[in-house]
Amino acid sequence: MTGPQAKTCATCGRVIAAHAVYYRFSLVLEGEQDLLDPSDDLEGNPAEALAALVRRLDEGSADPGELEAQVHWERSGVVCSQCRSVAVRMLSTATKDAGPH
Q1: Is there a domain that residue 36 lies in?
Q2: Quick check: is 85 in a domain?
């Protein structure tokens, strides 16, 4: 009978010994948009504005998989204690409005 296997940190690649503490994570990023582009005339004819948006997407050169990844991305795994500290510090920063990056 064998015991638990060592794990690998998803961030730094460090091997986490079977007896060491590790942290499971699950991260989901979902794109949202509160307002459509004001240049789209939604008040005049919403159906036509929507049709124009669909046409632009159809005519665009963007890969459908890339468009999907921009809207929904998820990852899960384990991290070591050092990487956990960095992630918690980075995601805990209290900002009222981070603004553009």
Answers
A1: no
A2: yes
* DSSP at 86: H
- Nearest residue to 27 via CA among 96, 65, 83: 83
Beta bridge mates, 76 = 26
User: HEC states along 39-73?
Assistant: CCCCCCCHHHHHHHHHHHHHHCCCCHHHHHHHHEE
Question: Are 74 and 31 spatial neighbours (Cβ–Cβ below 8 Å)?
Answer: no
Query: pLDDT tens, 5-15?
Result: 889 999 999 99
80 in a structural domain: yes
pLDDT digits (tens, 9 = 90+) for 47-73: 887 888 788 878 877 777 877 878 899
Which residue range(s) make up the domain with 70? 7-30+44-95
Residues 6+ away with beta carbon under 8 Å from 31: 70, 71, 72
